[in-house]
Amino acid sequence: MADSSRTARRPWCLAALGRRERLPSQSMSSASPVLRKIEELDPVHDYQEIARLDTCYEFPFDTTRALEFALFRTFASPTISSVLDSTQEFGRRAQRRYDDTDLILSEMLEEGLDSERGRTALRRMNRLHGAYAISNEDFLYVLSTFVFEPIRWNERFGWRRLSEKERLAGFYYWREVGRRMAIRDVPETIDELERYNIAYERAHFRYTETSRRVGEATREMFLAWFLPPFLRPLGRPFYHAVIDDVLLDAFGWPRPPGWLRSLASSGLRLRGRLVRLFGDRHQPRLRTRMRHRTYPRGYRVEDLGPAAPARDSVFLKSLD
Q: In which band, very low, low, confident or very high, does the pLDDT at 31 lie, cut at 50, 70 and 90?
């Protein structure tokens, strides 16, 4: 990202490791209680529990930022951004679209895919997607970003890197979500999915007006959380400083100077070091229990998203 383009970066592929990766910067004796519990679980069968522990206990901030960036990254694809731009939802109601996406994904992660609320959230997501002509190729790419952006974010800014079991659990979790969305041809291994992720970006990422408009609407929403309107032009270069050149070019945004990239990255890495000093999180941080700007008085899962489309998604059959 800030230091090099995505395609130039060395993938972390598990196959290249040749052996089980050592837990970064920690021995098991000094690992957090949550990580010790995770290391006792099987990522093939316990992927939902591992994903929940990571999201709610180990990396609540980092997972949220990584999934935000995963969705933001997809806007650089012209076929994805054209669908989003055609709805005008991001231009008019970016905060509401953010909250809806956040809550739908959080319901599934926190409550479980087989829970009543988790199934309702997934069904709602499928119904909303079913209103648009979205290719299987694009669905699969979006799914891949949910697997790899948390890995990449924690490599750069997290208080520790993800262990091999955590990485694999993320893959199996999102692969199961993809199955329930009836996404076809989901790779059987995490290495295959990473190759797909990189190849898709190389083939599709380029500048379009739709990508610029959706990207700008989302960027301005994020800046509005912290800055009044008259200061947002000053905040934009800092926002750009944590984005890689491939994305900046796709949005038509200027590349920030090296010193600003270093400053922004150093600040995020410093936050990670401070989190390490704070100790273990004993209570879960649940995004579904937080106050959301769009829903200050709460929400119903079945009401999330724009008005229900006239026809049901073909993907709903995967939940029946």
A: confident
Percent of the chain predicted with pLDDT > 70: 86
Three-class secondary structure assignment of the chain: CCCCCCCCCCCCCHHHHCCCCCCCCCCCCCCCHHHHHHHCCCCCCCHHHHHHHHHHHHCHHHHHHHHHHHHHHHCCCHHHHHHHHHHCHHHHHHHHHHHHHHHHHHHHHHHCCCCHHHHHHHHHHHHHHCCCCCCHHHHHHHHHHHHHHHHHHHHHCCCCCCCHHHHHHHHHHHHHHHHHCCCCCCCCCHHHHHHHHHHHHHHHCCCCHHHHHHHHHHHHHHHHCCCCHHHHHHHHHHHHCCCCHHHHHHHCCCCCCHHHHHHHHHHHHHHHHHHHHHCCCCCCCCHHHCCCCCCCCCCCHHHCCCCCCCCCCHHHHHHC
- Residue 32: band (very low, low, confident or very high) from pLDDT cuts 50, 70, 90: confident
- What does each C-alpha distance from 194 to 161, 205, 309 come to in angstroms? 18, 16, 33
Q: What is the mean pLDDT of residues 78-90?
A: 94
